[in-house]
Every structure is written in C-alpha cells, then in structure tokens.
Amino acid sequence: MMAGWQYLAVLALCVAATLPLEFVLGARVYRRPRLLLATLAPVVVAFGAWDLFGYHRGDWWYSIRQTLGVRLLGMPVEEWLFFLVVPVCALLTFEVLGRRRGRRDR
C-alpha cells in the first residue's frame, strides 16, 4: 500500500528541496506563470507523447504496486506530474545558478 505513494513522495521531495530557490533566493520561476507555462508545455507534450508511444508499443510498463493507479491517457498521473515537477525544479536551479554566475561575471 505505501509503495504506491513512493513516486509522489519523491516528486514532493523534489519540490520541497527546490522551493526555497524561489522564495529565498529569488529564482522568479513561479512569479512568471505565462513564461513557465510556455516552457513546460513543449516538455509535457514531447515527453508525454514519447512515453505514451513507448508504453502502447510495449517498450515499458508502469507497476500498479508502485503507483496509485490513477491514469490519464493510459499513463499514471505520477508520470505526468514528473514531466511538470522535474523541469520546474531544473528551472529553479538554473535561474538561481545563472543569476549568481551573472553577478560573478560582471
């Protein structure tokens, strides 16, 4: 039963670990929702399509024991969330590191 929550727990930890980058270090990712959406949309479409294609071809599968069982277009909702959470965490990190590097380069 608990195994089904592991995927979501890892995603939540990723969000929790990078959230301070927005509010403490000023990444400004969440404060620009249109730009965030424009950045995430191609990622979700491209990787979602790739995953769906591979899943429906039988190249891989999703364990019912490791997910909650809620599916969207045949894929676990956790997989779709992965395509949102991981890029947002990467953007937060990139924004903070890029800003710090920009200060050093001046």
UniProtKB/TrEMBL annotation:
GO terms for biological process: carotenoid biosynthetic process. Keywords: Carotenoid biosynthesis, Isomerase, Membrane, Transmembrane, Transmembrane helix. GO terms for molecular function: intramolecular lyase activity; lycopene beta cyclase activity. The chain crosses the membrane at residues 6-23, 35-53, 80-98. Its main location: membrane. It is found in: Membrane. It is a multi-pass membrane protein. It comes from the Bacteria. Residues 7-97 form the Lycopene cyclase domain. GO terms for cellular component: membrane. InterPro entries: Lycopene_cyclase_dom. Pathway: Carotenoid biosynthesis. Pfam families: Lycopene_cyc. This is Lycopene cyclase domain-containing protein. It comes from Actinocatenispora sera.
